Structures are given as structure tokens and as C-alpha cells.
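Target chain:
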Amino acid sequence: MSSAEIKHDFLDPPAENGSADYLGTIGPYRVIRELGKGGMGYVFLAEDVRLKREVALKVMTQKIAATPGSRKRFISEARSMAAVHHDNVATIFEVGEYKGTPYMAMELLEGSTLESLAEVEQRPDYAEVIRYARDMARGLAAAHAQGIVHRDIK
């Protein structure tokens, strides 16, 4: 199934007179394609149409967004993370809700995940593993210094 065939109810459809090279919109973001999916929601490649830049857009699933406590916690945690400024933490640009669906726009980071390296059987050597762990620990320490405990480390 191509990204153009994926349907997400929380997105407004693409403009009829525009091109269909994106999935839809949520607020001021043109959602281009899905990057990932987890228990809490989706992460999309999106374009901030106001600033003309690509962002990673994290959107909560409709099922979880229907729970007021979850929606409130998502927005509260995102606002807390926006206060963390560190080279090993993605910068959060905006936190909001659109038609009852919470979202967070953040810095789009290039590269691959450790999971994707494992899929193509490229095992990093021990020095790389130590560097990855050190960088992750530094990012987590920056969050902890702001009183934030990350509950979903990947």
C-alpha cells in the first residue's frame, strides 16, 4: 500500500485543486508520508506551510486522543520536552490540538535507526555502540535535569 492510499481520519483531505502528492493536512502542516507508528500514535514527514520547512509531526491516535487524560498528558509532556535544549534531543517547534487530535511538530532528524541497521544486518562495532549509548544517556540526562522521565526509549 503506498502512502497515498493510507487513510487517516484525523487529516483534512488534500486540496481538490492541488496535487495529490501528500496525504492531507492537520492545522498548518501538509502531511507527506508516514514515517512510523507506535502504540500512542503516528509520526509523519510533514511540511510546515508557514515556515516552508520539513518537520517530524507526531500525532496521537484517535482512540487514545478520545481519552481526556491521555490527551492532556501528551500535551503536557510535549510542552515539558520543548524546554529541553540539547544536541541529543530533537527540538520541539510546536505543540497543539487540531479538531481534538493532539500533535507535536519537531525537528526532522536525518539518518537511520538502530532497528533499521539490524534489519540489514549491519552490526555496529563496540565503539559505535558505546558512542550511541553515550549520546542517548546525555540526551536523557538533559531531560532529567528538567524533571522529565522518558517512558518510551527506543
The beta strands are 24-26, 29-37, 41-48, 53-60, 92-98, 101-106. The CA atoms of residues 83 and 112 lie 25 Å apart. The first strand starts at residue 24 and ends at 26. The radius of gyration is 17 Å.
